[in-house]
Design a protein that fits this description.
By secondary structure, the protein is an alpha/beta fold. The model has no long low-confidence stretch (mean pLDDT 90). Strands 1, 2, 3, 4, 5, 6, 7, 8, 9 and 10 form a ten-stranded mixed sheet that branches. It has two domains: 38-135 and 262-328, D-Maltodextrin-Binding Protein, domain 2 (3-Layer(aba) Sandwich); 137-235, Periplasmic binding protein-like II (D-Maltodextrin-Binding Protein, domain 2, 3-Layer(aba) Sandwich). The chain has helices spanning 8-38, 55-71, 86-93, 107-115, 123-126, 151-160, 175-187, 199-207, 218-226, 274-288, 291-300, 309-328, and strands at 44-48, 75-79, 101-106, 127-142, 166-169, 192-195, 213-217, 231-235, 261-269, 302-304. It is globular. β1 (44-48), α2 and β2 form a beta-alpha-beta unit. It is built from twelve helices and ten strands. α1 (8-38) packs parallel to α10, α2 (55-71) crosses α10 (274-288) and α4 crosses α12 (309-328).
């Protein structure tokens, strides 16, 4: 007799189908969690799209050594400089999203979003945020042969000789280039940009007198200042540098509101499992809070910068907007 109600077999079949569907839905989450628990199972490479000896390279090696000790797997640093960090960043963006290729990046990448339209990648489309690492002020230096002892004297010299002085950077879009263009914009000076292949070569250029000026990271240029190889005119932070305490801030030295920094962070190819991103974020934040790391960076003029993946994602998007607005004001935009 038909009652219009489903029979027991139909109910059992429906229940089984529902349970099976639910199980399949949960499989990716279980797989991701399991994968993260085993991660890393072999070597991880960190692409550094900058030359050896610069801040990103130095920090990558400190971080890589610490992560290797924590995870008991090799973290190999691979320098891939060129085209203002575009080459190495593009390589990272095209890598497999499995957690075994990471990108050491800086505000170079956020500036390039508006400076280099020919890129084959988009930062926030093709890569995901893992963690911020540290931030450092810059220092404005000149070769000792430059007849300017203060920042105001240098500005006066540059204004009296438009287009005759030059400044070095490690390439278009790097923090040193952006800081230089911002300085020109805020001081009304015409100083020629000379891009080098990496920060080491740029540093050598100003120390050797091939270029008159450079705005470089305190962490790498301070020893040259102390040795008298260059003359420091100002630092670029909101407070005086603990490494160069006798050097005034640009804001103190007459360029009101001038501020420029270099920060570093870690990203991975889009599609990298969130569980791995979270695991890496936790490891980075643990490392940068260790007293010996804090002291090491403080002695060099850098400060740890701790964020969750979501916080770093928002930070990156905001920095892209900030530099896009700054680039619009550059009279000789690349």
């Amino acid at each position: 007799m038909k009652t219009g109600l489903p029979d027991r077999n139909s109910i059992a079949t429906a229940a089984f189908s529902l349970a099976l569907s639910a199980a399949f839905c949960l499989l990716p989450a279980f797989a991701s969690t399991s994968w993260a628990q085993d991660y890393p199972a072999h070597m991880v490479r960190i692409i550094v799209p900058f030359g050896a000896g610069g801040p990103a390279d130095v920090v990558a090696r400190v971080l890589g050594n610490a992560m290797e000790a924590s995870f008991k797997q090799p973290f190999v640093i691979e320098n891939r400089p060129g085209a203002g960090a575009v080459i190495g960043t593009q390589d990272a963006a095209k890598s497999a999203p499995d957690g075994y290729t990471l990108l050491m990046m800086s505000n170079t990448q956020t500036a390039n979003e508006s400076l280099v339209p020919q890129r084959k990648y988009q930062l926030m489309r093709d890569l995901v945020a893992i963690a911020s690492i540290n931030v450092a002020d810059l220092v404005i230096v000149v070769h000792p042969s430059v007849p300017a002892k203060t920042l105001q004297e240098f500005i006066g010299l540059a204004r009296s000789q438009p287009g005759k002085l030059n400044y070095a950077s490690s390439g278009t879009g790097t923090p040193y280039h952006m800081a230089g263009e911002l300085f020109k914009n805020m001081t009304g000076t015409d100083i020629v940009h000379v891009p080098y292949r990496n920060s080491g070569e740029a540093r050598t250029g100003v120390i050797g007198g091939q270029v008159q000026m450079m705005i470089d990271s305190v962490t790498t240029m301070a020893p040259n200042v102390m040795q008298g190889q260059v003359r420091a005119l100002a630092t670029t932070g909101k407070t005086r540098s603990s490494v160069l305490p006798d050097v005034p801030m640009a804001d103190e030295a007459g360029v009101k509101g001038y501020e420029a920094t270099i920060w570093l962070g870690l990203m991975a190819p889009k599609g990298t499992p969130q569980a791995i991103i979270d695991k890496l974020n936790g490891a980075v934040n643990d490392i940068i809070k260790r007293p010996e790391i804090v002291k090491l960076w403080a002695d060099q003029g850098a400060t740890p910068m701790s964020m969750t993946p979501d916080e770093f994602d928002k930070f990156l998007r905001g920095d892209i907007v900030k530099w896009a607005e700054v680039v619009k004001r550059f009279p000789d935009r690349p």
